[in-house]
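User:
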Amino acid sequence: MLAKRIIPCLDVKDGRTVKGTNFVNLREAGDPVELGKAYSDAGADELVFLDITASHEGRKTFTGMVERVARELSIPFTVGGGINELADVARMLDAGADKVSLNSAALRNPQLVADIAGHFGSQVCVVAIDARCTDGKWECYLNGGRVPAGRDLFDWARRVNDLGAGEILFTSMNHDGVKRGFANDALARLADELTIPVIASGGAGAMEHFADAFRLGHADAALAASVFHFGEIPIPALKQYLHREGICVRL
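Assistant: Predicted structure:
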């Protein structure tokens, strides 16, 4: 059985880690380099770094910041934000990233997913999907949750699966920062319909929520931000809890 992964996420704006609720009302959470090192040392399985305003502001991810974070890590490192072409992927890999995360660019140009998978390997290509559920229908959003994309979550996830993405990072905008649990029904449907791993994001508020994402949502990994950034759930304690619950994790 593959171990379930615990992944802290650094949402970075203007060089600082931030966290909001439902993608708004951001508050500062600390220095991304220091946080990245702390999570690596604490036993996180991977780290995700998202430059959350790069696509909205039409610029590239901060390469220097990625280099500084990568130097402090001994775990796989995914970078997203402003990745629009193969040259951006090469730049991030050269800076120390192991994978890149695409969201807006993939929605605008799905062929980019296939190009990255073909050029660098599927394992490098993570497709992040931010989606909001309204009246029972899940719609994808662009530009950090600002712009509706007019695409159904499940149709889009199957498309990028077929294009060669290595995994899906699904964030429920309804659940983001609310701390009442992940969108387990949607996660379970994604896990059932896809052949690639699904990372759960949006809604972690207690250790039980992680267990539910794995048991009920059939997620391969669970990502969180504020509960880790503000010391509410220490990663070593979380992993010990999951182990006691019979969930396979790396201790």
